[in-house]
Structure formats: C-alpha cells, structure tokens
Amino acid sequence: AIDINKLRDLTGAITMDPGYKNSGSCKSDITFLDGEEGILRYRGYAIEDLADKASFLEVSYLVIFGELPTRAQLEQFEADIRKYSLVNEEMKNIIDGFPKTAHPMGVLSSLTSALTAFNPKVVNVENESEMYEAIVKTMGKFLVLATWTFRKSSGYPLNYYDNTKGYVENFLRLMFELPTGPYTINPIVVDALDKLFILHADHEQNCSTSTVRMVGSSHAGLFASISAGVSALWGPLHGGANQAVLEMLEEIQKNGGDADKYLEKAKDKNDPFRLMGFGHRVYKNFDPRAKIIKKAADEVLATLGVNDPVLQIAKKLEESALVDEYFVSRKLYPNVDFYSGIIYRALGIPTDMFTVLFAIGRLPGWIAQWKEMRENKEPIGRPRQIYTGHPLRDFKPFEQR
Ligand code: ACO
C-alpha cells in the first residue's frame, strides 16, 4: 500500500512567498493595474476618465456589474439602494453597547457583521436576484452604519437616508445634519468626495480585498466577508495610513514643525519610524490616484480658503521627499492616502473617520470581488506553510517542566 505521508513528502513542494508579493490568487476581470507604468483601470476604463466624468454610484455599478449603466439602470440602482438603506432599529441597541471612545472602524466591522443576524437571506445567495438584493442592501446599509459610527462617538442623534438626495450628498447629511436645521451641502465638497470614493473603489488583490475573497471563499456570506475586509483595512500599513498621515503631521507640528527632521528620522534604519503616506507595494514609480487627488487637494484647499499649518507641513514633506536621494532611489512617492488625509481634514472630517471613508469608497470593489469569486465558483482559500517548529516530543507531566 502507498504511504500517503511519504508520498506527500516527495511531491509536496511548496512555494514560499511571504506577503504574497509574487503570487496570483485568482483571475479577475475587474481591475487592471500596472505598478511600473502607474496605470489603473476599472473594467477597462482609465481611472483618470472615471474620476473626471463619472459619479461614484456610476463607477460602483461599473465595478460590480462590469458595464457602465444606462441612465435607467443607474436610476434603478440608486432607487434600490435607497429602498434598502433602512437598518433594523434593534441595531441601535448594539451601537449603544459601544463606548463613545471606540474606534469607528472596530464599530463598523462589528455592525456590518451584525447585519447578517437581521438579514439571514444575504448569507446564502442562490440566484441572480438574491445576489442583486444582497448587493444593494450592502451599498445602502453600510453607508448609513458608517456614518452612525461617527454620530455615536460625537453624541449626536442618528440620521436616516434622505430619499431626495444622492449617495454622496447623503453621506454628508448623515454625518453632519443636526436636528436644529438642515445641513447645507457644498457642491465642491460633494465633487471632491465623489472623486475620492471613485479613486478608492477597487485596487485588485490588496490586503482587505484578498481578505474579502478569502472569507467569502468559505461561503460565509457578503456581510461577514465585508466585515472582515473592514478589519483588514483598519491597519496603519493599509487603509489606516490616511489616519496615520494626519497623526504624523500633527506630531511634527506639536514638536516644532520641522518636516526635514522627520524626513531624516524616516531614513534612519535604527528608527522604526516611517514616513506615513509614502511608498506603495505595487506602484513603484507613481500612484496614478495620487496625481488626480493631489490636484483635487489643491483645488479644495484653494476654494475653501483653508490655511492650516498642518497642511503646510504636508507640502514641505512632499517637496523635500521628492528630491531626497533615499526616497527617490527607493521609488517612495506620496500615495493616495497622503493626499486623501489632507482633503478629509480640510473638509472637517474627524481624523479617526478617515479610514471609514476609505471603506465607503472601497465597498463596491469588495462587493465586485466577492461576486466574481462566487460566480467563478472559486475553491476555498487555503495556503500552505513550511513547518519550522519542534520535531515530535514526549509529553512531560507538570513536575518535569
Ligand atoms: N518611509 C521610510 N522608508 C520606507 C518607507 C517609508 N514610508 N516605505 C518603505 N521604505 C523603505 C524600507 O525601509 C525599505 O528600505 P531598504 O530597502 O533600505 O530596507 C524600502 O523602502 C522598501 O520597503 P518595503 O517595506 O520592502 O516595501 P513594501 O512594498 O513591503 O511596503 C508599504 C510598502 C507597506 C506601503 C511601505 O512603503 C510603508 O510602510 N509605507 C508607509 C505606510 C503607508 O503609507 N501605507 C499605505 C499604503 S497605500 C494603501 O494601503 C492604500
């Protein structure tokens, strides 16, 4: 008889690729990314065109369903998102259980997972119409819950989706409207947020998206998979970088505002400090999103007339790093998070909500990747390892340890 363990030793060559720097985990029709050339396209459309000409919901439809919507399709999509934007009132009991100081990403991840309890059908999507319903429910409810994490921490009453307003306008209303009067929506702010959300909508197999696919590959359901994506995005090496950028800039300001001193600190290999918002795993020349967003940041700051010393420090860091040998030789350029943090601050968004805004933008990408993974009937994700621990040992009773 064949000894299956011996056979495994002989045939079981494992490719070691920590951080999956060079491993493909799936085939995908959604996003094309060329890190060397700085190219990003959703479903074949250049990110520059989409950011300039389309709305966030239009791009969401494109990313999720594969084609730009007709006017009627977009109206239907928006109407369905509106219809499902209500969340069960009992979700408020869960929100009440969190301390006011809780980080909004932790709260958002928990609330998204909790949605499963109130919408059990979303777990087991069996046909196209159930898939569609799961998608519009997620788009509607996630936006509302994302803003509720802020309302909770600020002590304001929770707002509901306004059927007369668009998705991005609703985000602003849900965040900032008070019972004392209507919130005036600034079209420049809506335009900047629309662009930011579009630039974040998908980015192929990054940490959070791969997490969504991995969790979804066990057929765990859309809400559970998105909740895991939110947790993955939270970390400072991923989506949490936009919050980390602002915290770094504030620290530099608190300590005298000397940007160059921090530039030197980031170069010191004995110092764990890294310049937040610089460098990217894939883009080694420039981040095409950073180019678009830098322009938007300049416009927003000029239009809103913001004169903020923290933002001056950002400008100084950017200028110095772009001509510094260390950063230039390692191809470390400002990434999308560097500029998004700056815009969010200028718009008056609280720092610990920055990563939540990233999550709102990334939601259509997570949904599209989950949908594709399910439709392609991908197998459960299950990487291997190389065991480096002890060989077989004899068990020792307490007296011998
Ligand atoms: N500041 C200083 N040095 C840096 C930085 C930085 N921000 N980023 C990379 N380096 C250096 C490394 O020390 C290393 O130097 P060495 O070759 O002398 O050892 C070299 O550049 C290569 O860096 P790696 O860590 O190998 O690059 P990797 O591709 O693994 O990491 C990452 C990419 C995580 C984005 C990194 O650049 C970083 O930590 N940046 C700061 C955090 C950040 O902005 N994250 C947001 C990423 S974008 C996003 O999630 C949307």
UniProtKB/TrEMBL annotation:
Could you tell me which Gene3D superfamilies the record lists for this protein?
2.20.28.60, Citrate Synthase, domain 1 (1.10.580.10), Cytochrome P450-Terp, domain 2 (1.10.230.10)
**Active site: residue positions:** 280, 337
User: Which organism encodes this protein?
Assistant: Flavobacterium magnum
Q: Which PANTHER family match?
A: CITRATE SYNTHASE
The UniProt keywords, alphabetically, are: Acyltransferase, Transferase, Tricarboxylic acid cycle
GO molecular function list: citrate synthase activity
An annotated GO BP: tricarboxylic acid cycle
GO (cellular component) term, any one: cytoplasm
Which reactions is this enzyme annotated as catalysing? oxaloacetate + acetyl-CoA + H2O = citrate + CoA + H(+)
Put simply, this protein is called Citrate synthase
The record's similarity note reads: Belongs to the citrate synthase family.
Pathway named in the protein's UniProt entry: Carbohydrate metabolism; tricarboxylic acid cycle; isocitrate from oxaloacetate: step 1/2
**NCBIfam families, per this entry?**
cit_synth_I, PRK05614.1
Q: Which domain of life is it from?
A: Bacteria
